Amino acid sequence: MSLSLLASALLSLGPEAIKFIGAKLGKSKVAELAADVVTVVGNNYVNPEAQQSALEQHLKHLNPAELDELLSMRATLEQEATKRHQATQATIQNGDNAQDQYIRQTRPLLARLSMYASIFYAFGFEALAAAGTGDGASFDVLLWLFTPALTYMGLRTIDGFAPYSKSSGDKTAGALSAIIKRK
Fold it and tell me: Using one digit for the tens of pLDDT, what is the confidence trace for 101-110?
């Protein structure tokens, strides 16, 4: 259905890009509305399937004129999402295949430094906590430090650690809290 494709395009672009494209097409009001809905959905749901489903439900409740305007923007939204993905992939490939050794090694170096900092932070703060000083390592800080390394290894979302497949329909916002409890 076209609502599914529209929701997918809106989610992949994010609120700011939706507003920019809406302004460019002269549809700022409906773009602002869509951006606000995408923001709310993104704040309330962890996994992509739940976000997609929730956004589709929100889109069904729009008045027909607003929905028609968004549907008329769909092709432009999809083109922009594809263009951004291709630009990101090209940037990564250009860096990985660069003749300059410094450029070619930058991403792997950042990933290694991220991993080293994460390990140092976790062991250091846990050692301090064992010695009676402080509360130990914060999961949020550790995840923040580890993000470049995880991204370099191909992990794009936190649900990559989930005990079920990514195609599973039973992921919920509780997935993040389950991961934290396993800590």
Answer: 999 999 999 9
